[in-house]
Amino acid sequence: MRIAAPELSPEQTYKLMSGIVVPRPIAWISTLGPGGKVNLAPFSCFTFVSNTPPMLGINIGRKAGQRKDTARNILEHGHFVVNIGNAGLLDAIHASAEEHPPEVSEAELLQLEVVAGEQIATPRLAAAPVSLECTLHSVIPFGDTGAEFFVGEVKLFHIRDGLARDGKIDTTLLDPVCRIGGPNYALLGPLVTKRALRQTPKSVMDKDAA
Ligand SMILES: Cc1cc2nc3c(=O)[nH]c(=O)nc-3n(C[C@H](O)[C@H](O)[C@H](O)COP(=O)(O)O)c2cc1C
């Protein structure tokens, strides 16, 4: 089967792409909404884009041409928290994607406890095993649907005690969830370990040599 990309509608393209780029990790983003309410929503077009400084990227689409609450809140305040949920939080992750008016806090609706931010004013989720306090680095628009790629710089890592060993996250303990598409998710299956490959150590670029 061959499909010419320009013949697809935005909806058809989304269906195909989201079924091809799988499984996707989920950034469960808390932001400050109107009146200081904590907005919460999951985003799976999510990856990291730099390690020094640590930076994450999330693609946020639009609803009927309008920015989603998360995007608006990030632009207004310049900071947000990427919480990482686990399998025990999957129902709440899914439910937090329900559309609500901007002044409604999904964290409150779902009775999720929040903890004040330390380096930013956005609170994080107490139940999340990992939360990353981020400041907005840049926003890059892509394509014709108004989607925007938000890049955040991680200022503070909150990692539940016991989850990291020798600076590495224990993935089995983390028990992450991934999005497949629509209401479908995947849990961590068996880990497969291959022989370690030699890798040149990561380094910082000489500013003049770029
Ligand atoms: C698991 C999951 C992943 C999602 N990933 C994205 C995404 O990457 N980008 C996006 O724009 N919307 C994504 N959505 C949809 C948003 O969560 C949804 O539009 C939500 O209502 C946005 O909330 P907000 O208006 O409070 O920001 C996802 C939904 C689910 C359930």
UniProtKB/TrEMBL annotation:
Report the Pfam families cross-referenced here: Flavin_Reduct
For activity, the cofactor(s) needed are: FMN
Write down the SUPFAM superfamilies for this protein, in alphabetical order: FMN-binding split barrel
Q: Please list the GO terms describing molecular function.
A: FMN binding; oxidoreductase activity, acting on the CH-NH group of donors, NAD or NADP as acceptor
Specify the Flavin reductase like domain's residue ranges. 19-171
Q: Which SMART domains match?
A: Flavin_Reduct
Highest taxon of the source?
Bacteria
Please provide the record's keywords in A-Z order.
Flavoprotein, FMN
Which Gene3D superfamilies does this UniProt record tie to the protein?
A: Electron Transport, Fmn-binding Protein, Chain A
The positions making up the signal sequence are none
Family listed = Belongs to the flavoredoxin family.
Query: What's the protein name?
Result: Flavin reductase like domain-containing protein
